[in-house]
Amino acid sequence: MLRPAGLWRLCLRPRTAGVSTENLGRRKVASAVPPRGGTSPRALNIFDRDLKRKQKNWAARQPEPMKFDYLKEEVGSRIADRVYDIARDFPLALDLGCGRGYIAQHLNKETIGKFFQADIAENALKNSLETEIPTVSVLADEEFLPFRENTFDLVVSSLSLHWVNDLPRALEQLAETEREGGFSPHISPFIAVSDLGHLLGRAGFNTLTVDTDEIQVNYPGMFELMEDLQGMGESNCSWNRRALLHRDTMLAAAAVYREMYGNEDGSVPATYQIYHMIGWKYHESQARPAERGSATVSFGELRQINNLMSRGEKS
């Protein structure tokens, strides 16, 4: 089962390091990418971030990049629906790991005032999709966020954080830049659902909810699936990946895949499992649980009321 991933959440607006908030109606690119090979000193260095940048840049400069956009556009639409579910507008928002802007195209200027779109791949930013929202493009690495505290009202990120080496640190940085918003990731293939709430709680978020989406796509065969993952910029970038697989090995793997999971029509399914998580940074306006001992009705009285209601329904 394939499990690509992503994320979204809320924050507020002072200024952004290296990026002016003036003239946001004009699309421009500002750079905030760390030196190549740079990672957090405490991070597990699992992924080659330079290779991931190259993969995403290669995918974005293909003649028809939209051919491989179907999954990211679908997930972007689902994230936008969750933004619309929140009864407020967001003057300043950030899409972290935006790719070609798959979320922004599903949002409107009544909901989002201005949108910063940040990605590690400059070609993705240069070929971004059209949106009615004023945007600013920022070349930035998810592991080294260039934004000051309390910057954004909303931060979204889709199908990006599963390639981050130090995910807890990235979430903590997001918590620092958020002011009074919420956060929802579709997280990595290397984390259990039961750990997601703990991860956000550790980063400083509360009122957490988690749900799971599954998107199944049928492909003619394993090689077509691999071609599409490459076209999406989702090829493996683990340091311990095999540099070369022999042709016989690939053909055998394709045959086993078809034999074990193949559909009656000869196609093979790939299931993308996406974890949505919503959390809110603490704010004095949030509802709080009542103080211990402040209840005016006992559990015994509630039980009696419940029994009376049950009898009334039966009669």
Automatic annotation (TrEMBL):
**InterPro entries hit by this protein:** Malonyl-ACP_OMT, Methyltransf_11, SAM-dependent_MTases_sf
Asked if the keyword Transferase belongs to this entry, the reply reads yes
For this record, an example GO cellular component is: mitochondrion
Question: Where would I find the Methyltransferase type domain in this sequence?
Answer: 94-183
* UniProt entry keywords in alphabetical sequence: Methyltransferase, Transferase
Which GO molecular function annotation, any one, does this entry have?
A: S-adenosylmethionine-dependent methyltransferase activity
Gene Ontology BP, a term: methylation
Q: What is this protein called?
A: Arginine-hydroxylase NDUFAF5, mitochondrial
**Family of the protein in this entry:** Belongs to the methyltransferase superfamily.
Query: Does the keyword field hold Methyltransferase?
Result: yes
